[in-house]
């Protein structure tokens, strides 16, 4: 019976590789196997009908209500060119210093966290805006592309990112299932836990850039301020910052739920767009349509993953993974290592959302039952996947940047550029593994 | 055959229109939820009716836009291989996927939801929350309407992908350069690093 679960998992991977949309591949393949299960008298058809309550649960999930609202906020900031102005404002602030452009890319990548989280958007935006400027200013192609790829993935780990909302919801229900940790986990906890590691990553990136400006100054030169754009527009720099700080602050301070904060953030983004005279009906219409398509895409994957895991569970796959992980020689450490490595490898073909909805619900309950801290687990997963998306030859960020980079930037330059950042990521993972307090300290201070 | 494909396009267009109209619910959600939060901060009053209606809008938004999203090719794909496939191979994947995965899934969702939705209508189910919205059966009915819209879009997809699939097999004339340019356009944007 478990062999059917394994066969199903392998088949799903193969079907996914064909390129048919993920949501329907997950559920469709699972249903073909479910039909087989019913025919072999392994699955009772009534069990399959419980999918209704799962789907209805997704519709009523109050945590995930934050997803379309955060997407709205991000798309609005992007389409009203507020993100773009933030980037050029930052650049004009720092560009007369050695390495200044690279520094502004890192900082904007970190700040734009709120507006992305779906892999690719930031990499593409920054690749289009910053890469040409950096190359023209004499930055080495490797450093420029490396900085852009790495900063583009920062959006996932720094709250309030959409993937942290999704991950928070999945970890919370896995925690309920495991039934060991009495304390319920919330998205706010995960945001708080991800804060310090996120800031540390930004600092590490900055230290690396400053090191380069000392060791190889020709790779990251300062730019003489001759352009007219050097006149700094403080409002375009500070207002988006204020918006993001307010959204995040209100969640961490507990005065608003993530959904409420996201709605206010989206309203703030609309007001910012009006203030910047970038608001019109056509743009608003394109924002609501693009928000809807992204939201629908995310939730259809959730529906597909939910039907997949229903069938997987019916075949006893859950139980198999649970016993497999808890019987590993080496205990919690080995189990954690196995899960992290498989997620890293799956990160080459699957996006963050799919891994969060399919793989995390399968593995997290077992790990939590073994005593792993849920918030720490969430942050480890996020940093791990971020690393996976940077790793050649399959990392998502590299694909996206290759798509928008000029032809004369060689692919090997991109690979060479991200290597130091992968090293930083691995260092971060090691630090988190040795000192879980880096994650758990802030949530404890805030929430007690 | 031509009539059939015409009908398929009409159905697909209807599913697109449904998705485009529910898109505006996102704006309404932003505004209503903001109002609800601000009023709870300022006047210590927030409406359960309002917050439930936001949940309803959210559900209607992502469910009724599923076909539209598929139509605009924004349902995420694992495109390591797909992006490199020929025009015809892509059409083949889409045709088989629609027939073997999407359509059975839609029918399954209708089958599994049917009795629950029917029951909800029969007992005139209302919200479990005091002061919540009446007519929960309308909300549950979305789980019938969504797969129906998906099926409508699926028929459109079947027709289009079948035509694309056959185009290149039957006539290697003027259609071939089109597929090549399509392919090279994809290579430009999605080339493996």
Briefly say what this structure is.
Chain A has 448 residues and is mainly alpha-helical. Chain A has helices at 2-17, 22-39, 45-49, 51-60, 66-79, 82-94, 100-111, 121-136, 141-157, 162-178, 187-215, 234-252, 258-275, 281-314, 317-326, 331-346, 352-369, 374-388, 396-404, 411-434, 437-447.
Distance between termini of chain A? 45 Å
Sheet/helix structural class of chain A: mainly alpha
H and E order of chain A = HHHHHHHHHHHHHHHHHHHHH
Largest sheet of chain A: none
Q: Name the beta content range of chain B.
A: under 5%
Total count of helical runs of at least 4 residues of chain B:
8
Radius of gyration of chain B: 22 Å
Largest interface: A-B, 70 and 67 residues
Structural class of chain B: mainly alpha
Q: Which features would summarize this protein structure in a list?
A:
heterodimer; A: 448 residues; mainly alpha; 21 helices; 76% helix; B: 193 residues; 8 helices; elongated; disordered C terminus
Description:
The complex is a heterodimer of chains A (448) and B (193). Chain A has 448 residues and is mainly α. Chain A contains 21 helices and no strands. The longest helix of chain A is centred in the middle third of the chain and has 34 residues, at 281-314. Chain A starts with a helix and ends with a helix. Chain B is mainly α. Helices cover 80% and strands 0% of the residues of chain B. Chain B is elongated. Chain B starts with a helix and ends with a helix. The chains are: A mainly alpha (448), B mainly alpha (193). At the A-B interface, helix 1, helix 2, helix 4, helix 5 and helix 13 of A face helix 1, helix 2, helix 3, helix 4 and helix 5 of B.
């Amino acid at each position: 019976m478990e062999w059917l679960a394994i066969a199903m998992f392998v088949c799903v991977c193969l079907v996914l590789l064909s390129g048919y949309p993920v949501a329907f591949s997950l559920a469709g393949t699972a249903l073909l196997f479910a039909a087989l299960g019913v025919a072999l008298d392994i699955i009772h058809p009534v069990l399959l009908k419980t999918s209704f309550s799962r789907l209805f649960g997704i519709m009523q999930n109050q945590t995930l209500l934050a997803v379309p609202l955060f997407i709205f906020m991000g798309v609005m900031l992007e389409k009203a060119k507020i993100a773009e102005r933030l980037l050029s404002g930052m650049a004009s602030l720092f560009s007369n210093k050695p390495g200044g452009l690279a520094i502004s890319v890192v900082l904007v990548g970190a700040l734009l966290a709120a507006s992305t989280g779906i892999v690719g958007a930031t990499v593409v935006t920054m690749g289009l805006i910053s890469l040409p400027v950096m190359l023209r200013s004499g930055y080495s192609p490797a450093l420029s592309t490396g900085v852009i790829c790495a900063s583009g993935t920062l959006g996932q780990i720094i709250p309030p990112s959409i993937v942290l909302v999704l991950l928070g919801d999945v970890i919370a229900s896995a925690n309920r299932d495991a039934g060991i940790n009495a304390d319920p986990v919330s998205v706010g906890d995960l945001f708080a836990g991800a804060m310090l590691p996120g800031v540390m990553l930004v600092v590490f990136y900055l230290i690396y850039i400053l090191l380069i400006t000392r060791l190889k100054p020709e790779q990251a030169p300062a730019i003489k301020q001759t352009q007219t754009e050097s006149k700094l527009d403080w409002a375009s720099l500070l207002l988006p910052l204020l918006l993001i700080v307010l959204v995040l602050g209100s969640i961490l301070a507990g005065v608003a739920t993530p959904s409420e904060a996201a709605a206010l953030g989206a309203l703030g983004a609309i007001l910012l767009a009006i203030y910047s005279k970038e608001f019109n009906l056509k743009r608003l219409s394109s924002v609501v349509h693009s928000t809807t398509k992204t939201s629908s895409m995310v939730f259809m994957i959730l529906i597909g993953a939910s039907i997949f895991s229903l069938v997987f569970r019916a075949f006893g796959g859950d139980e198999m993974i649970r016993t497999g992980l808890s019987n590993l020689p080496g205990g919690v450490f080995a189990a954690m290592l196995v899960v992290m490595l498989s997620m890293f490898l799956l990160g080459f073909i699957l996006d963050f959302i799919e891994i969060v909805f399919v793989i995390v619900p399968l593995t997290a309950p077992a790990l939590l039952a073994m005593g792993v801290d849920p918030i720490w687990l969430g942050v480890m997963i996020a940093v791990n996947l971020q690393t996976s998306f940077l790793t050649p030859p399959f990392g998502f960020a590299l694909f996206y940047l290759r798509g928008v980079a000029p032809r004369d930037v060689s692919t090997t330059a991109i690979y060479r550029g991200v290597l130091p950042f992968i090293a930083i990521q691995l260092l971060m993972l090691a630090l988190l593994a040795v000192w879980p307090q880096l994650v758990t300290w802030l949530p404890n201070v805030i929430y007690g | 055959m031509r009539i059939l494909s015409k009908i398929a396009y009409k159905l697909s267009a209807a599913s697109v229109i449904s998705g485009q109209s529910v898109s505006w619910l996102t704006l309404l959600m932003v505004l209503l939820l903001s109002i609800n939060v601000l009023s709870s901060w300022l006047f210590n009053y927030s409406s359960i009716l309002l917050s439930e209606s936001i949940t309803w809008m959210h559900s209607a938004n992502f469910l009724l836009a599923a076909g539209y999203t598929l139509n605009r090719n924004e349902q995420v794909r694992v495109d390591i291989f797909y992006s490199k496939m020929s025009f015809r191979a892509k059409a083949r994947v889409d045709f088989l996927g629609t027939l073997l995965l999407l359509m059975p899934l839609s029918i399954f969702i209708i089958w599994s939801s049917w009795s629950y939705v029917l029951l909800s209508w029969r007992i005139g189910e209302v919200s479990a929350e005091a002061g919540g919205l009446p007519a929960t059966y309308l909300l549950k009915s979305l789980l019938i309407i969504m797969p129906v819209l998906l099926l409508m879009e699926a028929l459109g997809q079947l027709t289009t992908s079948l035509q694309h699939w056959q185009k290149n097999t039957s006539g290697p004339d003027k259609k071939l350069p089109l597929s090549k340019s399509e392919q090279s356009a994809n290579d430009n944007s999605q080339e493996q690093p």
